[in-house]
Fold this sequence. Notes:
Blueprint: H1 2-6, H2 15-40, H3 44-61, E1 69-70, H4 73-90, H5 96-117, H6 129-148, E2 152-153, E3 156-157, H7 160-183, H8 189-203, H9 211-217, H10 239-271, H11 277-294, E4 300-301, H12 303-311, H13 317-332, H14 335-338, H15 343-357, H16 362-365, H17 371-386, H18 389-409, E5 413-418, E6 424-432, H19 437-441, E7 452-462, H20 465-480, E8 484-488, H21 492-500, E9 508-510, H22 519-530
Parallel strand pairs: 6-7, 7-8, 8-9
Antiparallel strand pairs: 1-4, 2-3, 5-6
Helix pairs in contact: 2-3, 2-4, 2-12, 2-13, 3-11, 3-13, 4-5, 4-10, 5-10, 5-11, 6-15, 6-17, 6-18, 7-8, 7-15, 8-15, 10-11, 10-12, 12-15, 17-18
Amino acid sequence: xxxxxxxxxxxxxxxxxxxxSGLTVALALVPEAVAFSFVAGVSPIVGLYGAFMMCIMTxxxxxxxxxxSGATGAMAVVMVNLVLEGNALGGAGSHxxxxxxxxxxxxxxxxxxxxxxxxxxxxxxxVPRSVMMGFVxxxxxxxxxxxxxxxxxxxxxxxxxxxxIMIGLVALxxxxxxTVPMVYKKAPGAxxxxxxxxxxxxxxxxDTATVLSFIKVxxxxxxxxxxxxxxxxxxxxxxxxxxxxxxxxxILAAIGLIESLMTxxxxxxxxxxxxxxxxxxxxxxxxxxxxxxxxxxxxCAMIGQSIINITSGGRGRLSGIxxxxxxxxxxxxxxxYIEMVPIAAxxxxxxxxxxxxFAWSTFNIVNKVPKWDVAVIVLVTFLTVKYDLAIxxxxxxxxxxxxxxxxxxxxxxxxxxVDEHGIKHYQIYGPLFFGxxxxxxxKFDVKDDPDNVIIDFQESRIMDQSAIEMVNKVxxxxxxxxxxxxxxxxxxxxxxxxxxxxxxxxxxVLSDPDYFVSVDNYNKLQDELKA
Length: 531
């Protein structure tokens, strides 16, 4: 992550920077929204409407100024099955799938808003650093691979002169992007690069793929359209409909929140600021709900466009608002000019995003961090590329948690002392929980121990029900042998756990909530035990 951080300026942002970066993002949103709409099996206009509404709503209401939301591939791959099955439910030749999608987005909006209201956004803190690095690297690779599709025509790689023209224009765009900040740091490098390459292609009449040709190749006609209109999804409101769309809604809501919160965390790190995860959950919900009512395909935070925004100087809400308004302006009034933008210019910008997104520091820490962390980074990267972000992050968190549990399970230790009164003390070190109970039990020698035993938890902690059950088991073993066991130095929360389990855990609790035992109390205990 450190390498990426050095590529992002420490600028606090300005109105000028927000406006220029917003315009750049708007240009980059067009092919992305169109491409993802094709993936989802809907019209490009539906994708563009979705990008506009996601961007404007989250920019105004969201918890992370400077973060850009729009139509995304992670959600599009789920939507395509929803649309297809919806069409099947509507009968032969039906277009009901789109209406089912809009209705599903209403539920997605409700679920995501509830996640924010119940403050579930804080659970993003549970994502380990290794998972975060794998997520970033995986998304960088996904963005890179998605741009390679632009070098294809009808499923085959372009060759000869068209290929070299494409490569040359991409390289020119990247060169301008690297050079402009060296001349004037506050200049909108990405916007200048896109405009410069576009003018070169137009006036030099260079034959290369443009936004319009890209749309037509994929079956569209253009991006010109009117304002999105309000409409209630036209589907039968039945129990069957609800059971059909709810699983899709839950999946889409989860994917959207995971990608948005992970992107929020990344932008926080790159800008040294702090966003509100819970507020972002609510904003994502409101945006998707609005999409369901106004005919957009919905979406979530977009890491590529967000990186473009912050590297172009966008820091405030104005940058996202500008991007959304500019995108709508393109759709309404300037579609002809936007359709002339060469795809190569946008690919060049996205390649720079890949360079700035990838955590190059990964290669420097391979031999410096635990091997398990390296394994998690590699696994999450692979799963992000192979499947999707949600699966990758969930698997990464689960595996990291299992590794953590395993390592802590091995930390349970017991120091054994027999005092001058013949009382044996077991001084326990490390957490006692489900993973360490077996090792904990192995520390005791019930058969050869004296009649009185003290288990001292001053350096330990009873963590869960499994630990309580194990304490109960140890007690029963000593009782069967006619011996007495005492628990000592339990913290207040441990005592509370034991008291809640009194029916199953018959023990004599000798507690000292402040972890201080006076000499008099100790001598009194010795007398009680000898009696």
